[in-house]
Protein backbone atom coordinates (compact mmCIF):
# COMPACT_ATOMS: atom_id res chain seq x y z
CA UNK A 1 0.00 0.00 0.00
CA UNK A 2 2.88 2.33 0.86
CA UNK A 3 4.57 1.58 -2.48
CA UNK A 4 1.32 2.20 -4.35
CA UNK A 5 0.88 5.58 -2.68
CA UNK A 6 4.49 6.46 -3.54
CA UNK A 7 3.99 5.38 -7.18
CA UNK A 8 0.82 7.47 -7.56
CA UNK A 9 2.50 10.52 -5.95
CA UNK A 10 5.56 10.21 -8.23
CA UNK A 11 3.39 9.69 -11.32
CA UNK A 12 1.25 12.77 -10.56
CA UNK A 13 4.33 14.96 -10.00
CA UNK A 14 6.04 13.64 -13.14
CA UNK A 15 3.03 14.62 -15.25
CA UNK A 16 3.31 18.31 -14.44
CA UNK A 17 7.07 18.53 -14.69
CA UNK A 18 6.66 18.73 -18.45
CA UNK A 19 3.24 20.24 -19.09
CA UNK A 20 3.64 20.31 -22.89
CA UNK A 21 4.33 16.58 -23.11
CA UNK A 22 1.44 15.76 -20.75
CA UNK A 23 -0.90 18.07 -22.67
CA UNK A 24 -0.06 16.32 -25.95
CA UNK A 25 -0.96 12.92 -24.51
CA UNK A 26 -4.18 14.20 -22.91
CA UNK A 27 -5.16 16.03 -26.11
CA UNK A 28 -4.56 12.88 -28.21
CA UNK A 29 -6.91 10.87 -25.98
CA UNK A 30 -9.44 13.73 -25.72
CA UNK A 31 -9.82 14.14 -29.49
CA UNK A 32 -9.86 10.36 -29.97
CA UNK A 33 -12.79 9.95 -27.59
CA UNK A 34 -14.55 13.06 -28.96
CA UNK A 35 -14.31 11.97 -32.62
CA UNK A 36 -15.31 8.36 -31.87
CA UNK A 37 -18.40 9.47 -29.93
CA UNK A 38 -19.46 12.03 -32.55
CA UNK A 39 -19.02 9.52 -35.39
CA UNK A 40 -21.03 6.78 -33.68
CA UNK A 41 -23.71 9.17 -32.35
CA UNK A 42 -24.34 10.69 -35.78
CA UNK A 43 -24.41 7.28 -37.46
CA UNK A 44 -26.91 5.87 -34.97
CA UNK A 45 -28.87 9.14 -35.14
CA UNK A 46 -29.38 8.71 -38.88
CA UNK A 47 -30.63 5.15 -38.30
CA UNK A 48 -33.00 6.27 -35.54
CA UNK A 49 -34.34 9.00 -37.80
CA UNK A 50 -34.92 6.49 -40.59
CA UNK A 51 -36.70 4.07 -38.26
CA UNK A 52 -38.79 6.90 -36.84
CA UNK A 53 -39.78 8.11 -40.31
CA UNK A 54 -40.75 4.65 -41.54
CA UNK A 55 -42.08 3.10 -38.32
CA UNK A 56 -43.43 5.79 -36.00
CA UNK A 57 -44.72 7.91 -38.90
CA UNK A 58 -46.16 5.12 -41.05
CA UNK A 59 -46.05 1.37 -40.41
CA UNK A 60 -46.31 1.30 -36.60
CA UNK A 61 -44.15 -0.96 -34.45
CA UNK A 62 -46.64 -3.83 -34.82
CA UNK A 63 -49.26 -4.78 -37.38
CA UNK A 64 -52.17 -7.20 -37.19
CA UNK A 65 -52.69 -9.01 -40.50
CA UNK A 66 -54.40 -11.91 -42.16
CA UNK A 67 -51.74 -14.70 -42.19
CA UNK A 68 -52.01 -14.90 -46.00
CA UNK A 69 -51.32 -11.17 -46.41
CA UNK A 70 -47.57 -11.63 -45.77
CA UNK A 71 -47.18 -13.89 -48.80
CA UNK A 72 -49.56 -12.05 -51.11
CA UNK A 73 -50.38 -8.44 -50.29
CA UNK A 74 -53.77 -8.13 -51.98
CA UNK A 75 -57.20 -6.90 -50.89
CA UNK A 76 -58.42 -10.51 -51.03
CA UNK A 77 -56.22 -11.33 -48.01
CA UNK A 78 -57.90 -8.79 -45.73
CA UNK A 79 -59.22 -9.24 -42.21
CA UNK A 80 -62.50 -8.29 -40.56
CA UNK A 81 -61.97 -5.30 -38.29
CA UNK A 82 -64.81 -5.48 -35.77
CA UNK A 83 -65.40 -4.39 -32.19
CA UNK A 84 -64.04 -7.70 -30.86
CA UNK A 85 -60.62 -7.23 -32.51
CA UNK A 86 -60.62 -3.56 -31.51
CA UNK A 87 -61.30 -4.48 -27.86
CA UNK A 88 -58.45 -7.01 -27.82
CA UNK A 89 -56.02 -4.39 -29.13
CA UNK A 90 -57.08 -1.66 -26.70
CA UNK A 91 -56.97 -4.05 -23.71
CA UNK A 92 -53.15 -4.09 -23.73
CA UNK A 93 -51.82 -1.11 -21.67
CA UNK A 94 -48.52 -0.83 -23.58
CA UNK A 95 -50.38 0.00 -26.82
CA UNK A 96 -50.76 3.76 -27.19
CA UNK A 97 -52.56 4.01 -30.54
CA UNK A 98 -53.80 1.93 -33.47
CA UNK A 99 -55.24 2.49 -36.92
CA UNK A 100 -57.08 0.04 -39.21
CA UNK A 101 -56.08 0.50 -42.83
CA UNK A 102 -56.80 -0.67 -46.32
CA UNK A 103 -53.56 -0.64 -48.30
CA UNK A 104 -53.45 -1.44 -51.98
CA UNK A 105 -51.77 -0.35 -55.18
CA UNK A 106 -53.56 1.45 -58.00
CA UNK A 107 -52.82 3.58 -61.00
CA UNK A 108 -53.18 7.31 -60.25
CA UNK A 109 -53.81 9.68 -63.16
CA UNK A 110 -54.04 13.43 -63.60
CA UNK A 111 -54.65 14.69 -67.14
CA UNK A 112 -51.89 12.98 -69.22
CA UNK A 113 -49.67 11.88 -66.29
CA UNK A 114 -50.06 8.59 -64.44
CA UNK A 115 -48.12 6.57 -61.89
CA UNK A 116 -48.52 3.48 -59.73
CA UNK A 117 -49.15 4.51 -56.12
CA UNK A 118 -49.84 3.04 -52.69
CA UNK A 119 -53.34 3.97 -51.52
CA UNK A 120 -53.82 3.94 -47.76
CA UNK A 121 -57.35 4.16 -46.51
CA UNK A 122 -57.44 5.11 -42.83
CA UNK A 123 -59.53 6.81 -40.19
CA UNK A 124 -58.31 10.45 -40.02
CA UNK A 125 -58.44 10.69 -36.22
CA UNK A 126 -56.91 7.28 -35.47
CA UNK A 127 -54.22 7.82 -38.13
CA UNK A 128 -53.28 11.17 -36.63
CA UNK A 129 -53.05 9.62 -33.15
CA UNK A 130 -50.84 6.85 -34.55
CA UNK A 131 -48.48 8.76 -36.84
CA UNK A 132 -49.13 12.48 -36.31
CA UNK A 133 -50.24 12.68 -39.94
CA UNK A 134 -51.95 16.06 -39.47
CA UNK A 135 -48.54 17.66 -38.78
CA UNK A 136 -47.37 16.45 -42.19
CA UNK A 137 -49.78 18.71 -44.08
CA UNK A 138 -47.63 21.03 -46.16
CA UNK A 139 -50.42 22.64 -48.17
CA UNK A 140 -54.21 22.43 -48.02
CA UNK A 141 -56.39 21.00 -45.23
CA UNK A 142 -56.50 17.67 -43.39
CA UNK A 143 -59.17 15.27 -44.67
CA UNK A 144 -62.23 14.19 -42.67
CA UNK A 145 -63.74 10.74 -42.04
CA UNK A 146 -66.85 11.21 -44.18
CA UNK A 147 -65.22 13.08 -47.06
CA UNK A 148 -64.34 11.80 -50.53
CA UNK A 149 -60.98 13.60 -50.64
CA UNK A 150 -57.36 12.47 -50.74
CA UNK A 151 -53.97 13.62 -49.48
CA UNK A 152 -50.70 12.75 -51.23
CA UNK A 153 -46.93 13.13 -50.79
CA UNK A 154 -45.25 16.22 -52.19
CA UNK A 155 -43.03 14.22 -54.56
CA UNK A 156 -46.05 12.47 -56.05
CA UNK A 157 -47.97 15.75 -56.26
CA UNK A 158 -45.08 17.27 -58.18
CA UNK A 159 -44.97 14.30 -60.55
CA UNK A 160 -48.74 14.35 -61.18
CA UNK A 161 -48.70 18.18 -61.36
CA UNK A 162 -51.57 18.57 -58.91
CA UNK A 163 -52.30 20.89 -56.00
CA UNK A 164 -55.18 21.21 -53.49
CA UNK A 165 -58.46 21.48 -55.42
CA UNK A 166 -57.28 19.40 -58.40
CA UNK A 167 -58.64 15.91 -59.11
CA UNK A 168 -56.87 12.53 -59.26
CA UNK A 169 -58.38 9.41 -60.83
CA UNK A 170 -57.61 5.90 -59.55
CA UNK A 171 -57.88 2.65 -61.45
CA UNK A 172 -57.10 -0.72 -59.87
CA UNK A 173 -58.37 -4.07 -58.64
CA UNK A 174 -60.75 -4.38 -55.70
CA UNK A 175 -61.94 -7.19 -53.45
CA UNK A 176 -62.52 -10.50 -55.29
CA UNK A 177 -61.48 -9.11 -58.69
CA UNK A 178 -63.92 -6.21 -58.63
CA UNK A 179 -62.90 -3.05 -60.45
CA UNK A 180 -61.71 -0.18 -58.28
CA UNK A 181 -62.30 3.13 -60.05
CA UNK A 182 -62.67 6.48 -58.34
CA UNK A 183 -62.21 10.22 -58.77
CA UNK A 184 -61.13 12.26 -55.75
CA UNK A 185 -60.26 15.93 -55.21
CA UNK A 186 -56.92 16.73 -53.56
CA UNK A 187 -57.41 18.03 -50.01
CA UNK A 188 -53.76 18.38 -48.97
CA UNK A 189 -50.12 17.87 -49.90
CA UNK A 190 -48.05 15.96 -47.31
CA UNK A 191 -44.35 16.08 -46.52
CA UNK A 192 -42.71 12.98 -45.03
CA UNK A 193 -39.18 12.45 -43.75
CA UNK A 194 -38.65 9.38 -45.94
CA UNK A 195 -38.30 10.16 -49.70
CA UNK A 196 -40.07 6.93 -50.72
CA UNK A 197 -43.19 8.01 -48.80
CA UNK A 198 -43.17 11.45 -50.44
CA UNK A 199 -43.03 9.86 -53.89
CA UNK A 200 -45.64 7.12 -53.54
CA UNK A 201 -48.12 7.70 -50.71
CA UNK A 202 -51.81 8.57 -51.08
CA UNK A 203 -54.25 8.75 -48.14
CA UNK A 204 -58.03 8.60 -48.45
CA UNK A 205 -60.63 8.12 -45.65
CA UNK A 206 -61.13 4.50 -44.56
CA UNK A 207 -64.83 4.51 -45.50
CA UNK A 208 -64.05 5.88 -48.95
CA UNK A 209 -61.35 3.24 -49.48
CA UNK A 210 -63.75 0.45 -48.44
CA UNK A 211 -66.21 1.68 -51.05
CA UNK A 212 -63.45 2.07 -53.67
CA UNK A 213 -62.18 -1.49 -53.21
CA UNK A 214 -65.61 -3.05 -52.42
CA UNK A 215 -64.30 -4.21 -49.04
CA UNK A 216 -66.91 -3.11 -46.50
CA UNK A 217 -65.97 -3.59 -42.80
CA UNK A 218 -62.57 -4.89 -43.85
CA UNK A 219 -58.93 -3.86 -43.41
CA UNK A 220 -55.68 -5.23 -44.78
CA UNK A 221 -53.72 -4.29 -41.64
CA UNK A 222 -54.12 -2.71 -38.23
CA UNK A 223 -51.03 -0.64 -37.39
CA UNK A 224 -50.11 -0.36 -33.71
CA UNK A 225 -47.77 1.96 -31.80
CA UNK A 226 -46.28 1.34 -28.36
CA UNK A 227 -45.14 3.28 -25.32
CA UNK A 228 -41.62 1.94 -25.70
CA UNK A 229 -39.84 0.18 -28.54
CA UNK A 230 -38.05 -1.98 -25.95
CA UNK A 231 -41.37 -3.72 -25.18
CA UNK A 232 -42.05 -4.61 -28.82
CA UNK A 233 -41.37 -8.36 -28.69
CA UNK A 234 -43.25 -8.81 -25.39
CA UNK A 235 -46.30 -6.86 -26.61
CA UNK A 236 -46.21 -8.77 -29.90
CA UNK A 237 -46.47 -12.08 -28.04
CA UNK A 238 -49.19 -10.74 -25.72
CA UNK A 239 -51.29 -9.37 -28.58
CA UNK A 240 -50.89 -12.57 -30.58
CA UNK A 241 -52.12 -14.56 -27.59
CA UNK A 242 -55.10 -12.21 -27.17
CA UNK A 243 -56.32 -12.42 -30.78
CA UNK A 244 -55.63 -16.17 -31.12
CA UNK A 245 -52.99 -18.14 -32.98
CA UNK A 246 -55.23 -19.19 -35.88
CA UNK A 247 -57.22 -16.03 -36.65
CA UNK A 248 -54.73 -13.29 -37.50
CA UNK A 249 -51.02 -12.80 -36.99
CA UNK A 250 -49.04 -9.99 -35.36
CA UNK A 251 -45.80 -8.88 -36.99
CA UNK A 252 -43.22 -6.35 -35.79
CA UNK A 253 -41.65 -3.71 -38.00
CA UNK A 254 -38.43 -5.69 -38.42
CA UNK A 255 -40.41 -8.58 -39.94
CA UNK A 256 -42.46 -6.19 -42.06
CA UNK A 257 -39.49 -4.27 -43.45
CA UNK A 258 -36.49 -6.63 -43.67
CA UNK A 259 -35.02 -4.48 -46.45
CA UNK A 260 -34.81 -1.51 -44.06
CA UNK A 261 -33.18 -3.69 -41.39
CA UNK A 262 -30.67 -5.04 -43.92
CA UNK A 263 -29.93 -1.55 -45.21
CA UNK A 264 -29.22 -0.26 -41.70
CA UNK A 265 -27.11 -3.30 -40.77
CA UNK A 266 -25.08 -3.02 -43.97
CA UNK A 267 -24.48 0.68 -43.45
CA UNK A 268 -23.65 0.07 -39.78
CA UNK A 269 -20.95 -2.44 -40.77
CA UNK A 270 -19.41 0.03 -43.22
CA UNK A 271 -19.53 2.62 -40.45
CA UNK A 272 -17.65 0.24 -38.17
CA UNK A 273 -14.90 -0.04 -40.78
CA UNK A 274 -14.55 3.75 -40.75
CA UNK A 275 -14.48 3.64 -36.96
CA UNK A 276 -11.73 1.00 -36.99
CA UNK A 277 -9.69 3.22 -39.34
CA UNK A 278 -10.18 6.06 -36.86
CA UNK A 279 -9.07 3.77 -34.01
CA UNK A 280 -5.97 2.84 -36.02
CA UNK A 281 -5.04 6.48 -36.57
CA UNK A 282 -5.70 7.23 -32.91
CA UNK A 283 -3.56 4.24 -31.89
CA UNK A 284 -0.59 5.45 -33.95
CA UNK A 285 -0.87 8.95 -32.45
CA UNK A 286 -1.03 7.66 -28.86
CA UNK A 287 1.72 5.09 -29.42
CA UNK A 288 3.99 7.68 -31.04
CA UNK A 289 3.38 10.07 -28.16
CA UNK A 290 4.29 7.35 -25.64
CA UNK A 291 7.51 6.44 -27.48
CA UNK A 292 8.45 10.11 -27.67
CA UNK A 293 7.87 10.43 -23.95
CA UNK A 294 10.09 7.39 -23.23
CA UNK A 295 12.87 8.67 -25.50
CA UNK A 296 12.84 12.16 -23.98
CA UNK A 297 12.98 10.77 -20.46
CA UNK A 298 15.53 8.02 -21.11
CA UNK A 299 18.29 9.76 -19.18
CA UNK A 300 15.90 10.45 -16.30
CA UNK A 301 14.84 6.81 -16.12
CA UNK A 302 18.45 5.57 -16.29
CA UNK A 303 19.43 7.90 -13.46
CA UNK A 304 16.59 6.60 -11.26
CA UNK A 305 17.60 2.98 -11.91
CA UNK A 306 21.26 3.83 -11.25
CA UNK A 307 20.48 5.26 -7.79
CA UNK A 308 18.54 2.18 -6.79
CA UNK A 309 14.97 2.41 -8.09
CA UNK A 310 13.79 -0.95 -9.40
CA UNK A 311 12.81 -1.27 -13.05
CA UNK A 312 9.48 -2.79 -12.02
CA UNK A 313 8.57 0.21 -9.86
CA UNK A 314 9.66 2.58 -12.62
CA UNK A 315 7.52 0.69 -15.13
CA UNK A 316 4.49 0.81 -12.82
CA UNK A 317 4.99 4.55 -12.33
CA UNK A 318 4.89 5.06 -16.11
CA UNK A 319 1.73 2.94 -16.32
CA UNK A 320 0.03 5.04 -13.64
CA UNK A 321 1.03 8.18 -15.58
CA UNK A 322 -0.60 6.73 -18.71
CA UNK A 323 -3.75 5.79 -16.80
CA UNK A 324 -4.06 9.29 -15.31
CA UNK A 325 -3.49 11.03 -18.65
CA UNK A 326 -5.87 8.65 -20.43
CA UNK A 327 -8.56 9.11 -17.77
CA UNK A 328 -8.33 12.91 -17.96
CA UNK A 329 -8.43 12.90 -21.78
CA UNK A 330 -11.29 10.36 -21.95
CA UNK A 331 -13.44 12.20 -19.38
CA UNK A 332 -12.98 15.61 -21.00
CA UNK A 333 -13.47 14.10 -24.50
CA UNK A 334 -16.81 12.56 -23.49
CA UNK A 335 -17.92 15.74 -21.71
CA UNK A 336 -17.00 17.82 -24.76
CA UNK A 337 -19.07 15.56 -27.03
CA UNK A 338 -22.28 15.83 -24.96
CA UNK A 339 -23.27 19.42 -25.96
CA UNK A 340 -22.50 18.66 -29.63
CA UNK A 341 -24.61 15.47 -29.74
CA UNK A 342 -27.38 17.15 -27.72
CA UNK A 343 -27.48 20.06 -30.16
CA UNK A 344 -27.63 17.74 -33.19
CA UNK A 345 -30.32 15.66 -31.47
CA UNK A 346 -32.53 18.66 -30.66
CA UNK A 347 -31.73 20.71 -33.79
CA UNK A 348 -30.99 18.36 -36.72
CA UNK A 349 -29.05 19.91 -39.60
CA UNK A 350 -30.79 19.59 -42.97
CA UNK A 351 -28.47 18.95 -45.92
CA UNK A 352 -29.02 20.91 -49.10
CA UNK A 353 -27.72 20.59 -52.65
CA UNK A 354 -25.71 17.57 -53.79
CA UNK A 355 -25.21 16.15 -50.31
CA UNK A 356 -28.95 16.16 -49.65
CA UNK A 357 -29.72 14.49 -52.99
CA UNK A 358 -27.10 11.81 -52.28
CA UNK A 359 -28.86 10.96 -49.00
CA UNK A 360 -32.26 10.82 -50.71
CA UNK A 361 -30.96 8.53 -53.46
CA UNK A 362 -30.04 5.87 -50.88
CA UNK A 363 -33.41 6.26 -49.12
CA UNK A 364 -32.32 8.38 -46.14
CA UNK A 365 -33.76 11.71 -45.08
CA UNK A 366 -31.12 14.41 -45.81
CA UNK A 367 -30.72 15.32 -42.15
CA UNK A 368 -27.72 15.10 -39.82
CA UNK A 369 -28.81 14.23 -36.30
CA UNK A 370 -27.38 12.30 -33.34
CA UNK A 371 -28.46 10.08 -30.49
CA UNK A 372 -27.72 10.98 -26.87
CA UNK A 373 -27.23 7.49 -25.52
CA UNK A 374 -25.11 7.31 -22.31
CA UNK A 375 -24.23 3.68 -23.12
CA UNK A 376 -22.77 4.73 -26.49
CA UNK A 377 -20.74 7.53 -24.90
CA UNK A 378 -19.37 5.30 -22.15
CA UNK A 379 -18.55 2.45 -24.57
CA UNK A 380 -16.49 4.68 -26.86
CA UNK A 381 -14.78 6.26 -23.84
CA UNK A 382 -13.81 2.85 -22.50
CA UNK A 383 -12.60 1.60 -25.90
CA UNK A 384 -10.17 4.51 -26.35
CA UNK A 385 -9.09 4.42 -22.69
CA UNK A 386 -8.33 0.69 -22.79
CA UNK A 387 -6.56 1.08 -26.13
CA UNK A 388 -4.31 3.77 -24.63
CA UNK A 389 -3.44 1.58 -21.65
CA UNK A 390 -2.75 -1.47 -23.87
CA UNK A 391 -0.47 0.62 -26.09
CA UNK A 392 1.53 1.61 -23.02
CA UNK A 393 2.53 -2.02 -22.38
CA UNK A 394 5.37 -2.04 -24.92
CA UNK A 395 7.10 1.08 -23.47
CA UNK A 396 6.73 -0.48 -20.02
CA UNK A 397 8.45 -3.68 -21.21
CA UNK A 398 11.29 -1.56 -22.58
CA UNK A 399 11.70 0.03 -19.17
CA UNK A 400 11.79 -3.37 -17.48
CA UNK A 401 14.74 -4.37 -19.69
CA UNK A 402 16.54 -1.01 -19.59
CA UNK A 403 20.15 -0.94 -18.31
CA UNK A 404 21.26 2.12 -16.28
CA UNK A 405 24.26 2.86 -18.49
CA UNK A 406 22.15 2.78 -21.65
CA UNK A 407 20.46 6.12 -20.99
CA UNK A 408 23.39 7.76 -19.19
CA UNK A 409 25.73 6.97 -22.05
CA UNK A 410 23.29 8.58 -24.50
TrEMBL record:
InterPro entries associated with the record: ABC3_permease_C, Lipoprotein-release_system, MacB_PCD
GO biological process: lipoprotein localization to outer membrane
Annotated keywords: Cell membrane, Membrane, Transmembrane, Transmembrane helix
Residues annotated as transmembrane: 20-39, 273-294, 314-338, 382-400
Cellular component, GO, one term: plasma membrane protein complex
Pfam families in the cross-refs: FtsX (PF02687), MacB_PCD (PF12704)
Main location: membrane
Membrane topology: Multi-pass membrane protein
MacB-like periplasmic core domain sequence ranges: 23-240
Residue ranges of domain ABC3 transporter permease C-terminal in the record: 273-404
Family, per entry: Belongs to the ABC-4 integral membrane protein family. LolC/E subfamily.
PANTHER family named among the record's database cross-references: LIPOPROTEIN-RELEASING SYSTEM TRANSMEMBRANE PROTEIN LOLE
Protein name (record): ABC3 transporter permease protein domain-containing protein
Organism name: Jiulongibacter sediminis
